[in-house]
């Protein structure tokens, strides 16, 4: 029974960190760097719980639903509030509220679709909410260097990508042997210590691979739709080669 509960403990830790991130952006606290770090550590918890469940053969519908509910808070509500607190409060109330609310709403829609529709093997359909939330939370730390209009546009793009049909590579196949589970608490502790010691720097560093992942799926989708790019260009060359080799009826 205890073994079956271990994955849910990581999920609850994910939810706890999301709630802490929200508390840390209240005006009386105002620590967006620490809040963003809480979201990043929550991403670690979210990535670990599923692998632990598979390693212990402890997967369940309860764990799946708990994970989705936790993700809405940690990677939907918390990052949106972080961005709102540092960048959107100077905007008109209507625009700020709508854009802020749209992000967790799209995240919830994406999770609901994920739970009821089977995706493609090796791929996610739509940008996963942990990646979107990680990008938004760390992007907010650059609010002094990036115009508010760009931050607003980025929030809308991330919201759209979550509910889109853009394919993103899944790393779920990278499993974890049961014998390696003992390493997880050590990894978590090291991550927390580094996060406390290098709050702003580490959060901004993590932003780079997250935004590259978000742009990767978008680029692949654009390449697939362009007529003379990637695979389409290769097919066109093959067709032209066949035309050169096989004479047409009119030239015969």
Automatic annotation (TrEMBL):
Molecular function GO terms recorded: CDP-diacylglycerol-serine O-phosphatidyltransferase activity
Broad class of where this protein is predominantly found: membrane
Biological process terms in GO annotation: phospholipid biosynthetic process
Xref: Pfam families: CDP-OH_P_transf (PF01066)
Membrane-topology descriptor: Multi-pass membrane protein
GO cellular component, as recorded: endomembrane system; membrane
Subcellular location: Endomembrane system
InterPro entries: CDP-alcohol_PTase-I, CDP-diaglyc--ser_O-PTrfase, CDP-OH_P_trans, CDP-OH_PTrfase_TM_dom, CDP_ALCOHOL_P_TRANSF_CS
Keyword annotations of the record: Lipid biosynthesis, Lipid metabolism, Membrane, Phospholipid biosynthesis, Phospholipid metabolism, Transferase, Transmembrane, Transmembrane helix
Organism superkingdom: Bacteria
NCBIfam families: pssA
PANTHER family (alphabetical): CDP-DIACYLGLYCEROL--GLYCEROL-3-PHOSPHATE 3-PHOSPHATIDYLTRANSFERASE-RELATED, CDP-DIACYLGLYCEROL--SERINE O-PHOSPHATIDYLTRANSFERASE
Entry's family note: Belongs to the CDP-alcohol phosphatidyltransferase class-I family.
Identification of the protein by name: CDP-diacylglycerol--serine O-phosphatidyltransferase
Originating species: Paenibacillus nasutitermitis
